[in-house]
Design brief:
The protein is α/β, with parallel strands linked by helices. The protein is built from 28 helices and 22 strands. β1 and β2 form a beta hairpin. The chain is elongated, with a radius of gyration of 32 Å.
């Protein structure tokens, strides 16, 4: 049996109904009538998935109208629930004989023998189920199943548009618009409220039915060709590190782009009457529904690749660029992406950006580094977030807790709004402290310096009122560069950093790569324990050319100014001496070349490997200054990986063991008259900094955002009182895993602002 007028006529009529100025319910009522008559069925019903679980009958032609909004099925329950759970069509000539058939007296459906149901899919999520039924026993043809699936695509559009929400009301929102509260990995601090902007906008498939099938097939073939060529080009570029994508991912893209099964399904869908775009979406929807039920991580990864390649094909067909033009960013934008290169993030207008949410990134990833430098709150590790959100959805990103609220209900939005206002008030208070000298209640001056690593960090120096750049992580620039920066490029970077710093000093750290900081263009080393492996100065001494080039660039860039350099991961004084020798060679070389020398040169050592604590006197004598890298020192002292969340809560930087080690370093600096700074995260936490001041530290280098809170703490602290009390705590041999609680109580007693 053929549908009168066929699917094309039906779709044309449906489009007319979609445009009519009627209520959502009236529109749905007309749609089911149209479908039933076009498919010569006695019944057509639409079930919509509600946020709280069940599928609710939203409209029907043929069943009892009183059952609308009353009949509900849970996924898995009845035939409708079965279709929702499997996300696959179901055609039966004897519906009542099926083990899943569930009789609902209010619908009066027992008189119908044949049943055809298809899922209403969007991005792999089942938004509802569309059903036709016939009184007589009959077999639905492939063509009819296809036609109903195509019709369901239109209904999916209507559901995601939010129109049906007016029927559903607030108590039972439909699934696609439901609020989602998710928790990911916080990668850049801050709180952002705004609206979703998809970094890779979806192509809206406006036209579903093809006017001319052979022309559509031709369009499809041309787009596939062009997409294959673009993937090949990306692969070529990945060889010289310019594509920003990993080669394995690109190879997977290439495999899919040539996959016969996938291409056959696309061609069949077009041959069945769909436009090329609708065919891509249909095939993708089916694959997604199947693969999403897989728990195997390998298959789920393939789904990601499949989604990417389908997306590329859609953009090719639509003639749109794959990613949003940076200039198109609306106000209060929260970018949502699967992943993003640092360069892509830098392209967007910072003033309109309120946050970034990614499916995958990792705290030490490059995009995280850039987000932090730009002070944009960011959260990652949220699989499927690009599918959960719709362009323009309200969204909140909490870069401290990792919480992301999608389509938040009014009370949640209000409470985050309050939190944001509180934060803004606090920021205002900190800003008001900017020009106040950082001196404790009892007159001890505390130097507050800033950590940086990119040029985009530099404006924070002025804004925060920091005394200097206490740590410039040179490797960040190397991590973002497409290839190893040569001498001239390095010199230009350091010169720009110094210019941006004005009359404030910059302490450059030599390359700290290896471990968790790999350069994309360097061969990955197979090390069992990379954190204990070939990294930082170890690499620098084994490859002196690397280190010398960097020192040469720094010497040239600082002509006439003070040059401060520090060496990371020093484990023995002899290592530092070896680095000093290379530095001296470069100073002599610069002189021979006639370069204007720096006004003053200082070479310091980072204390972040525990062995130095037992050689600290010699180290303090050898170096011009010391800088404690508490992040690494802590991980090595406790043998606890700094990026492994499982062991993160196991040890405390406020434990007696760690504080005693830190005290030994501060004391040695004082004994030998050498300045000591602490540049790890601990110095940026008010309670940590309070303890450090009590131990004798007088200089801290920290993230720009920490400067205000630390200054507020310093201004309220009696350093000598804290020192007496902490000394007593450390002398007491009762067993304290951590002194945190005691220090907190001390802060309260001394009225310290934490
Ligand atoms: C540290 O280890 O404390 C430090 C400041 O260096 P990084 O975090 O870059 O290793
Ligand atoms: Mg370190």
């Amino acid at each position: 049996m053929r549908a009168p007028g066929g699917p094309r006529l039906l779709l044309r009529r449906l489009r007319e109904v979609m445009a009519e100025p009627v209520t959502a319910q009236a529109r749905l009522d007309r749609i089911v009538v149209l479908i039933a008559s076009n498919m010569v069925a006695e019944v057509c019903s639409l079930y919509v998935a509600r946020a709280d679980g069940p599928l609710e009958l939203y409209a029907t032609e043929g069943l009892n109208r009183e059952a609308v909004h009353l009949t509900r099925m849970m996924p898995g329950e009845g035939l409708v629930g079965l279709i929702a759970a499997t996300a696959e069509p179901l055609a039966l000539s004897d519906a009542q004989g099926h083990p899943h058939f569930s009789y609902r007296p209010e619908t009066g459906e027992e008189i119908y023998q044949s049943f055809l149901g298809v899922p209403v899919l969007r991005g792999g999520a089942t938004l509802g189920v569309l059903v036709v039924q016939n009184r007589a026993r009959r077999t639905y043809s492939e063509e009819e199943i296809e036609a109903l699936q195509t019709t369901a695509m239109l209904l999916a559009e209507m559901i995601v548009s939010g129109e049906l929400q007016s029927i559903a009301g607030q108590e039972a929102p439909i699934a696609v618009r439901r609020p989602e509260s998710l928790t990911g990995q916080p990668i850049a601090e801050g709180l952002g409220l705004g609206h979703v902007v998809l970094h890779q906008p979806r192509v809206a498939v406006a036209k579903i039915v093809a006017d001319d099938i052979s022309m559509e097939l031709d369009r499809l073939e041309k787009a596939i060709e062009a997409m294959r060529a673009s993937v090949d080009e990306l692969i070529d570029r990945s060889d010289d590190g310019r594509s920003g994508e990993h080669r394995e991912v690109l190879e997977a893209f290439r495999m899919i782009a040539h996959d016969r099964g996938w291409l056959r399904r696309l061609r069949e869908a077009v041959a069945g009457g769909l436009t090329a775009e609708a065919a891509v979406e249909r095939v993708q929807s089916d694959a997604r529904a199947r693969l999403q039920r897989q728990t195997d991580p390998y298959l789920r990864d393939r789904l990601h690749d499949l989604t990417d390649i389908a997306n590329r094909l859609l953009h090719q067909l639509a003639g749109q660029s794959l990613v949003l033009e940076p200039g198109e960013l609306p106000d209060n934008a929260i970018l949502v992406a699967r992943s993003m290169s640092p360069a892509a993030l830098l392209d967007y207008d910072r003033s309109r950006l309120r946050g970034v949410v990614l499916e995958e990134a990792g705290a030490s990833s490059h995009v995280a580094i850039v987000a932090r430098a730009l002070s944009i709150p960011a959260v990652s590790d949220l699989p499927n977030i690009t599918e959960i959100v719709e362009q323009g959805d309200a969204i909140i990103v909490d870069g401290v807790t990792g919480e992301v609220q999608v389509r938040p209900p009014p009370d949640v939005e209000a409470s985050y709004g309050e939190k944001a206002r509180l934060r803004a008030r606090q920021q205002d208070q900190y800003r008001a402290l900017r020009d106040k000298p950082s001196v404790t209640v009892d007159g001890v001056t505390i130097g507050l310096h800033m950590n940086a690593g990119l040029l985009i960090d530099m404006p924070h120096l002025e804004e925060s009122g920091a005394d200097s750049i206490g740590l410039f992580r040179t490797e960040l620039q190397f991590m973002l560069a497409p290839s190893f920066p040569r001498l001239n490029a390095q010199e230009a970077i350091y010169r720009s950093v110094l210019e941006a710093a004005g009359d404030r000093t910059v302490t450059f750290r030599t390359l700290d790569i290896g471990g968790d900081k790999m350069l994309p263009y360097m061969k990955r080393l197979d090390e069992e324990n990379p954190a204990l492996g070939w990294r930082a100065i170890r690499m620098g001494l084994d490859r002196p050319g690397l280190l010398r080039t960097q020192l040469r660039a720094m010497l040239r860039a600082t002509a006439g100014r003070e040059l401060k350099v520090m060496i990371p991961m020093v484990s023995t004084v002899t290592e530092f001496d070896a680095a000093r020798k290379l530095f001296d060679l470069e100073i002599a070389f610069a002189k021979r070349c006639g370069h204007e020398p720096p006004r003053d040169i200082k070479l310091g050592a980072m204390v972040e490997v525990p062995s130095l604590v037992w050689e600290i006197d010699e180290m303090a004598q050898a170096a011009d200054f010391l800088s404690v890298g508490s992040n690494d020192l802590m991980q090595y002292v406790f043998a606890a990986d700094r990026v492994n969340k499982r062991v993160a809560g196991r040890f405390d930087e406020l434990s007696p063991a760690f504080l005693r080690a830190l005290k030994a370093i501060a004391d040695a600096g004082r004994r030998h008259g050498k300045p000591v700074t602490l540049c790890g995260e601990m110095g940026g936490r008010p309670l940590g900094a309070m303890a450090l001041i009590a131990l004798g530290f007088r200089n801290f280098s920290m993230a720009a955002t920490a400067i205000g809170p630390i200054k507020a703490m310093v201004l309220s602290l009696d350093a000598s009182a804290a020192q007496c009390e902490l000394e007593a705590m450390l002398a007491d041999h009762s067993r304290h895993g951590s002194l945190r609680a005691l220090l907190q109580a001390l802060a309260e007693r001394l009225d310290v602002r934490l």
